């Protein structure tokens, strides 16, 4: 929540590029994905910290912790801020998601089966916001893969999923990056 003097909600955050291969260093509009993600985190008013920061230091800060995936480089700062404010207001872990738009088929014994209903499916993107109480309850992050991280957090804490704007989509390949570049091409 924004304070009465329009100061941003105090929070710490990190851009996650570890365990993502070389893709975070691919260029989008002339900048590395990790750089674009860092700019978005900065625009949100979150104070960046190195992921190597001791967890006890994050606990001592008593602030929410925002994780922004470098593979979601164009997530707008305003969306990160909105997720942060929601985490503070609800004390729930807030996760940015996108609806699944591809056709998904089940596979049984190596045979392609029926189409899965997409209505119940989501793609995790950015950010993942841990309220201060969740930061305090953890000894460390349960992982850096956002799907596994959210599953581990959901097993212990309330989690809310918030639909992210289209430009917040996750890239997993250079082909995905070309789509994101077209979607976010500057005017």
Give structural notes.
- Helix content is 30%, strand content 26%.
- By secondary structure, it is an alpha/beta fold.
- It has one domain (12-183): Spore Coat Polysaccharide Biosynthesis Protein SpsA, Chain A (Alpha-Beta Complex).
- A hairpin with a 2-residue loop joins strand 2 and strand 3 (31-32).
- The protein is globular.
Just name the CATH architecture: Alpha-Beta Complex
| Proportion in helices | 25-40%
- CATH topology term: Spore Coat Polysaccharide Biosynthesis Protein SpsA, Chain A
Just give the CATH class: Alpha Beta
The overall pLDDT average reads: 89
Number of DSSP strands?
10
The portion of residues forming beta strands comes to 25-35%
Tell me the Rg in angstroms: 17 Å
Class based on secondary structure composition and strand pairing: alpha/beta
Shape type: globular
Number of helices: 6
Number of domains: 1
Topology as a string of helices (H) and strands (E): EEEHEHEHEEEEHHEH
> How far apart are the termini?
32 Å
Q: What order do the strands of the largest sheet run in, or round the barrel if closed?
A: 4-1-5-9-6-10
Sheet with most strands: 6 strands, mixed
Low-confidence stretches: none
**CATH superfamily annotation:** Spore Coat Polysaccharide Biosynthesis Protein SpsA, Chain A
């Amino acid at each position: 929540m924004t304070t009465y003097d329009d100061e941003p909600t105090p929070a710490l955050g990190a851009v996650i590029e570890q365990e993502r291969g070389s893709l975070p260093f691919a260029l989008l509009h002339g900048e590395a994905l990790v750089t674009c993600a860092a700019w978005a985190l900065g625009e949100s008013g979150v104070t960046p910290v190195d992921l190597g920061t001791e967890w006890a230091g994050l606990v001592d800060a008593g602030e929410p912790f925002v994780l922004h995936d470098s593979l979601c480089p164009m997530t707008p700062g305003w969306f990160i801020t909105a997720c942060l404010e929601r985490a503070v207001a609800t004390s729930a872990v807030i996760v940015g998601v996108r609806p699944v738009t591809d056709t998904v088929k089940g596979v049984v014994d190596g045979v392609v089966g029926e189409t899965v209903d997409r209505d119940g499916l989501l793609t995790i993107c950015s950010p993942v916001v841990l309220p201060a109480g969740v930061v305090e309850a953890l000894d460390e992050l349960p992982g850096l893969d956002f799907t596994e991280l959210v599953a581990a957090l959901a097993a212990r804490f309330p989690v809310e999923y918030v639909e992210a704007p289209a430009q917040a989509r996750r890239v997993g390949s250079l082909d995905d990056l070309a789509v994101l570049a077209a979607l976010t091409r500057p005017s």
